[in-house]
TrEMBL record:
<keyword id="KW-0665">Pyrimidine biosynthesis</keyword>
<dbReference type="InterPro" id="IPR018089">
    <property type="entry name" value="OMPdecase_AS"/>
</dbReference>
<comment type="similarity">
    <text>Belongs to the OMP decarboxylase family. Type 2 subfamily.</text>
</comment>
<keyword id="KW-0210">Decarboxylase</keyword>
<dbReference type="GO" id="GO:0006207">
    <property type="term" value="P:'de novo' pyrimidine nucleobase biosynthetic process"/>
</dbReference>
<dbReference type="InterPro" id="IPR011995">
    <property type="entry name" value="OMPdecase_type-2"/>
</dbReference>
<dbReference type="InterPro" id="IPR013785">
    <property type="entry name" value="Aldolase_TIM"/>
</dbReference>
<protein>
    <recommendedName>
        <fullName>Orotidine-5'-phosphate decarboxylase</fullName>
        <ecNumber>4.1.1.23</ecNumber>
    </recommendedName>
</protein>
<keyword id="KW-0456">Lyase</keyword>
<dbReference type="GO" id="GO:0004590">
    <property type="term" value="F:orotidine-5'-phosphate decarboxylase activity"/>
</dbReference>
<dbReference type="Pfam" id="PF00215">
    <property type="entry name" value="OMPdecase"/>
</dbReference>
<dbReference type="GO" id="GO:0044205">
    <property type="term" value="P:'de novo' UMP biosynthetic process"/>
</dbReference>
<comment type="pathway">
    <text>Pyrimidine metabolism; UMP biosynthesis via de novo pathway; UMP from orotate: step 2/2.</text>
</comment>
<dbReference type="InterPro" id="IPR011060">
    <property type="entry name" value="RibuloseP-bd_barrel"/>
</dbReference>
<feature type="domain" description="Orotidine 5'-phosphate decarboxylase">
    <location>
        <begin position="23"/>
        <end position="287"/>
    </location>
</feature>
<dbReference type="InterPro" id="IPR001754">
    <property type="entry name" value="OMPdeCOase_dom"/>
</dbReference>
Amino acid sequence: MSTPFETVPFGQRLADAVAARGPLCVGLDPHAPLLERWGLPDDVDGLRRFTDAVVEALAGEVAVLKPQSAFYERHGSRGLAVLEDAVAGARAAGALVLLDAKRGDIGSTMDAYADVLRPEHPMAVDALTVSPYLGPGALQPAVDTARLTGSGLFVLARTSNPDAAALQSAAVGERSVAQVVVDTVRGWNTPGWVVGDPLPDVGGVQDLGSRWGATTGSFGVVVGATLRELDVDLDGLGGPVLAPGLGTQGGTPADLRRLFGTGRAVVPTVSRDVLAAGPDPAALRAAAARWAEALG
Ligand SMILES: O=c1ccn([C@@H]2O[C@H](COP(=O)(O)O)[C@@H](O)[C@H]2O)c(=O)[nH]1
């Protein structure tokens, strides 16, 4: 694929969107019980009506929309067509689109997964969630594509599900798995660093480039708002933190402040707790506004 580029990198576009609209990300998770609650059938027609309603209500309001790919894939190619239209519609209305697909594989396959970050892709998105389970180096093709196209990645580090620590807090030498992930992403946000290089020395500078602003990098991590304590060191990350787990999974705005304080570039993301307010567009907007205010 040949590729024209976003002239402004994802990290800067995200910082600009947050400045204009606040940091809230709303997830599109059209699971069957939710469609039923909205009075919609669990089929492609229901999926489209749900998705159009959420995009219509929120794409002009929130900084980021995060469609969960699984809920579209389960409806086959027609479900993916709904997702393609939603991504285009959301971006046209000014929201950044983070595709939550948690991709991760060996290099050649990762390269293909990363094509969704190219502007000429039928579902071109601004950023993608990726899984580091095959090793940080396996994600390099996605990093290269993101750099080339001015898009972003969020890497699973300390996820919001209750049993995540069983793997993510396991020790690799002196660090946890999650810390290796965070440190790798810190490297990606450092110009010139490649996997295998010594980690950049942040010299004790907290949040070097991690606050919103011109220095926000395009590579972020996922750290759940459900953690009892922040057991990874995010200092000097240089990029944003996507924080899921709010609302239905039990995380609260107070948890977010306890874990991350106020000085980091955190994107809190809420799906079910906002979507449950639909299908009325005003009610959806009000639910998102309530979260935005509580998180403010
Ligand atoms: O650690 C993670 C990473 C991603 N998710 C995704 O978020 C939504 C669930 O959001 P709710 O606000 O709880 O409805 C879903 O798409 C997950 O795959 C996560 O929950 N935790």
